[in-house]
């Protein structure tokens, strides 16, 4: 949500930012609506003041035995007009709020300009893609012999679902446990078990509603299935005033995630890359404004640490202006190498949202020794997407005989097992 004060003071800045995202200007419309609301507020206040003055005058006239009927009629007319003005003011304010709610976050100055993902900038790489003395397979072909079943999942739920049996189901569980241990024991995140069903205001707070309603699943009770644990973890501080000395807060959760993939027709229809239901270990930080840039770098490093421990090659890119998400000021994508596809694919996005979500959630903190409050900054990232990490393990650790070597870091979570094979 935008700061109206900023919009009033820098009327051209918003359109410049929107132009970087490839969006049309809206500042003139917003200023016009804001001015109309403030004019209406002034008129309302004047009528309320007139009504109050007349009420006092009625009392004075009556006390002197005079005729106050004309004054009473004017007060009644003012009361009716004030009620109409108050309703109109609520309508106009709701319209402006709806306009503001559909405007994306203000990009950080150092986000590179560009129209789409082709303009994203690679920052660094880690690890070398493995060399094979055979043609590497994609994960769905490897997984078919190990317990990855799309046909049975389709029988249960339709397309874009998967059923994992035996060793693959256990591998997914092991990956999640490993990720949680890394983030809680080594990086100081607090593990949280969150609801998977949330209310409208929760998705509004993090920016999924109203703009991205079609990307979500909604129940008949009016609840929404979470698209990511970010929405629940971030909203833990909604409507609160935090102690600035306690920040940053760092939370992590392992949850299923549910997405309709409404805009993904024809994309990644094969395999597990893009599913309606998947699991993820999410990272969320709540910080003071001066902490958020450093926290963004730290969070990205925490996600990278998982890939390094699993010895999976990856690269980090900063998203350009046209590819940066609605809620984000700046986003780093971590892309893992998939030998079967012969390219890097996203496995984590780490975003600094600044105070954008905090304004929507009304989440603030009080600096030490001060009465005033400020909006917190919020950050989120995948630490990591569990299903895509499973894909990366299968493809990077595949063997010629169809088996898959288990990364050393995962072996304690699999009773020391060194290999997954068709005989398991």
Commentary on this structure:
The chain is of the alpha+beta class and 424 residues long. The chain folds into two domains: 4-101, Helix Hairpins (Orthogonal Bundle); 117-420, 2-Layer Sandwich (BirA Bifunctional Protein, domain 2). Helices cover 39% and strands 20% of the residues. It is built from twelve helices and 18 strands. It has helices spanning 4-9, 13-20, 27-63, 69-101, 139-144, 150-157, 166-186, 200-206, 230-234, 292-310, 356-361, 386-396; strands spanning 121-126, 148-149, 163-164, 190-191, 197-198, 217-218, 224-225, 241-243, 249-258, 277-287, 314-318, 330-338, 343-352, 364-366, 374-375, 377-385, 404-405, 419-420. The strands form five sheets. The protein has an eight-stranded mixed β-sheet. A three-stranded antiparallel β-sheet has the order 5-7-6. A three-stranded mixed β-sheet has the order 8-14-15, with no helix packed on it. Strand 6 and strand 7 (224-225) form a beta hairpin. Helix 7 packs across helix 10 (292-310). The longest helix has 37 residues, at 27-63. The protein is elongated, with a radius of gyration of 27 Å. The mean pLDDT is 93.
What are the salient characteristics of this protein?
12 helices; 424 residues; BirA Bifunctional Protein, domain 2; 20% strand; Helix Hairpins; three-stranded antiparallel beta sheet
């Amino acid at each position: 949500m935008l700061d109206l004060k900023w919009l009033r003071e820098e009327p051209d800045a918003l359109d410049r930012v929107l132009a970087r995202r490839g969006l049309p200007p809206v500042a003139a419309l917003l200023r016009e609506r804001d001015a109309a609301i403030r004019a209406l507020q002034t008129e309302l206040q004047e009528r309320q003041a007139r009504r109050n003055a007349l009420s006092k005058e009625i009392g004075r006239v009556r006390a002197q035995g005079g005729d106050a009927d004309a004054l009473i009629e004017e007060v009644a007319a003012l009361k009716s007009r004030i009620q109409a003005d108050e309703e109109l003011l609520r309508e106009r304010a709701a319209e402006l709020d709806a306009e503001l709610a559909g405007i994306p976050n203000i990009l950080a100055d150092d986000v590179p300009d560009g129209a789409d993902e082709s303009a994203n900038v690679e920052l660094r790489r880690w690890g070398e893609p493995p060399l094979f003395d055979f043609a590497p397979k994609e994960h769905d072909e490897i997984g078919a012999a190990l317990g990855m079943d799309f046909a049975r999942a389709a029988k249960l739920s339709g397309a874009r679902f998967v059923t994992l049996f035996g060793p693959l189901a256990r591998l997914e569980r092991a990956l999640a446990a490993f990720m949680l241990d890394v983030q809680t024991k080594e990086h100081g995140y607090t593990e949280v078990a969150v609801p998977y069903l949330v209310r409208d205001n929760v998705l509004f707070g993090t920016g999924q509603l109203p703009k991205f309603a079609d990307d979500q699943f909604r129940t008949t009770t009016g609840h929404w299935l979470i698209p990511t644990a970010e929405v629940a973890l971030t909203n833990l501080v909604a409507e609160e005033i935090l102690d600035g000395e306690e920040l940053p807060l760092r939370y992590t959760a392992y949850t299923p995630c549910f997405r309709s993939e409404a805009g993904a027709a024809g994309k990644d229809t094969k395999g597990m890359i893009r599913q309606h239901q998947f699991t993820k270990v999410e990272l969320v930080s709540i910080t003071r404004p001066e902490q958020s840039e450093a926290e963004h770098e730290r969070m990205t490093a925490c996600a990278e640490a998982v890939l390094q421990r699993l010895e999976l090659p990856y690269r980090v890119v900063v998203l350009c202006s046209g590819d940066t998400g609605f809620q984000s000021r700046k986003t780093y994508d971590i892309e893992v190498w998939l030998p079967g596809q012969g390219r890097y694919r996203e496995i984590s996005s780490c975003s600094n949202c600044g105070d954008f979500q905090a304004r929507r959630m009304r989440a603030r903190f009080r600096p030490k020794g001060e009465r005033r409050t400020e909006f917190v900054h919020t950050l989120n990232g995948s630490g990591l997407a569990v299903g895509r990490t499973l894909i990366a393990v299968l493809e990077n650790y595949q063997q010629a005989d169809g088996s898959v070597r288990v990364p050393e870091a995962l072996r304690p979570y699999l009773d020391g097992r060194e290999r997954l094979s068709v005989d398991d």
